[in-house]
Amino acid sequence: MRILCLALSITLLAGCTSGPRIDDRYTAIGQNSRVQYIVLHYTSTDLPRSLRLLTGEEVSSHYLIGDAPPTIYRLVDENRRAWHVGDSQWQGRTWLNGTSIGIELVNQGYYEGPAGRYWQPYAPAQIDALIELLEDIVRRHQLPPGSILGHSDVAPQRKVDPGPLFPWKRLADAGLLPWPDAQAVAQQQALFAKSLPTVAWFQQQLQRQGYRVPEHGELDEATRNVLAAFQMKYRQARYDGEPDAETAALLMVLGGPAR
Fold this sequence. Notes:
- The strands form 3 sheets. This protein has a 5-stranded mixed sheet, sandwiched between helices.
- A hairpin with a 2-residue loop joins β7 and β8.
- α6 crosses α9 and α7 runs parallel beside α9.
- By secondary structure, it is of the alpha/beta class.
- The chain folds into 2 domains: 37-173, Lysozyme-like, CATH 3.40.80.10; 182-254, PGBD-like superfamily/PGBD (Muramoyl-pentapeptide Carboxypeptidase, domain 1, Orthogonal Bundle).
- It has helices at 2-17, 47-54, 124-141, 151-154, 168-173, 182-194, 199-209, 221-234, 245-254; strands at 37-42, 63-65, 72-74, 89-90, 93-94, 100-105, 110-113, 116-119, 148-150.
C-alpha cells in the first residue's frame, strides 16, 4: 500500500511540473521563421581564442567556422538568440540579434603594417563550408535573396567585418545573394560620369538597399562609412567612401525595395 501511494504521489507531482496541456492539432498558415537575416563576421583571432570568446558570457554566435580544417561548430541553437551583432539596423529593423543567425569565420581580420592595412585572405575550403551551411539555413528558413549580410552592412559606423577580402561574389555565384550585372553597371557608369547624382540621391539609394544612413544631403563621416560598407561588398578594389560614378551605377543596377 505504501509503495502504491508513493507511486501515485510521484505521478501527481510529475503532472504538476509538466506544464499546461497543449492541443497541437491545428496549425496557422500565417507564419514564418523568426530568422530574417544571416549576419557574417570574422573573429579577429585564431580558433582556440575564438572558441573561448564565443562560448563565454559576453558574446556568442550560432555558428563558428574554423579555417584549417574548416570545421563548423554550432554554439547556439537557431531557436535561441545569440549575442553577435549588437546595435544594428537593416531595412528599418533594429537590434538584429533577435531576428538573425550569426556566423563567425576564424580570420584575423587586419593589422596595420608599414605599407598600410593588411587583410587576411579567407581559405577557399572555409568558404566552401560556409556556402554549404548558408544553403542549408536559407532553405530551412525560406529566406529571400538579400538576407545574407555583413556585420559592416548592419553596423557600418563601428564595424568592418567580414572585410574587403570576403568573397561575396562566390556567394552570389552560388545563388545566395543578388549581384549587379557587369554590363549594366558599365552602361550606367558612363551616364553617371557625365553628371554625378547629389549626395541626397546616394543616401536615398543606400537606404533603399537597407542601410541606416543620414538623409540630410551632406557628405558627412556617417554617410562615408555607409558608402564604404557598400563599396567593400560590391567594389572591393576601392572602398574609400567617396560617391562616384561606379558606386552610383552599382546602386542603380542593384535597385532595392522601396520602403
